[in-house]
Amino acid sequence: MELLITYITPLLVVGLGFIFNYRLARLKSSTDFESSIKSEHYKAEVDYYKNKLTQFLNPLISCIEFDNSIWRNLSMLSDANDTFSVNLSKEVEKNHLLSNLVTARDLVRQNLHYVKMNGLLYSQLIEFIRHVSVYESIRSSGENCNPIDVGAPFPSDLEDLLRSEYIETIERYNELVKTPHKAINYMPTTQDAK
Hints:
With 194 residues, the chain is mainly alpha-helical. Helices cover 72% and strands 0% of the residues. Helix 1 runs antiparallel to helix 2, helix 1 (2-70) runs antiparallel to helix 4 (158-178) and helix 3 (119-141) crosses helix 4.
């Protein structure tokens, strides 16, 4: 019996050691895999907010600011006293204002997915697409009216909602860059910092 214990005990120890090492290696590999997934998710989230800012919100806000700076000076769009002459107004509208609005509309169409979860902004952007499309159609048809005359005014809350979305996006992007642990499902490790 002693002889059996002398030979079986070392075999059992070796076998249990092998099983323990195998399970430990699998655990470590799954932890590395999980850490890798979290790291990739973090990078994707940072890229998402960066792209939302650079490819959508920044250029769209620039287009709307340009529109704000010029439309009140056009005689056919404003009742103000300091408007351009009719001929100059038509040229500015045709060559600058409308092309700027079409650019903004195209930006919205291409990037509407960034705001699908914000129902109010989403609906205002849909109204903006409608406004610009109607405006462009009116001018190309030669009709003597404005979008507001045919029920397609510029969306009243668009600018405020857009600025709010812009500020929230910048804040989230900065938070992610400064404190990666605030990313959804991400816990940085010393290995991720390398």
